[in-house]
Specification:
The protein is α+β, with helices and mostly antiparallel strands. Helices cover about 20% and strands about 25% of the residues. Strands 1-2-3-4 form a 4-stranded antiparallel beta sheet, with no helix packed on it. A hairpin with a 4-residue loop joins β2 and β3. The chain is globular and about 35 Å long.
């Protein structure tokens, strides 16, 4: 799985990286640490209802 950090990120800042599947997030400062797994359809549904 590959991850990408925002081009707006600067060195030594707190950043989140997103996987190429858009389902996994991780802390850019701890790339071997835990992942946050996102339920994309549920997130989209929630965002539409807000």
């Amino acid at each position: 799985m590959r991850f990408k950090k925002s081009t707006k990120s600067v060195v030594e800042s707190n950043c989140v990286e997103v996987s190429n599947t858009l389902r996994h997030l991780r802390d850019s400062k701890n790339p071997t640490g835990p992942l946050l797994i996102v339920n994309v359809p549920a997130l989209i549904h929630h965002l539409k209802s807000v």
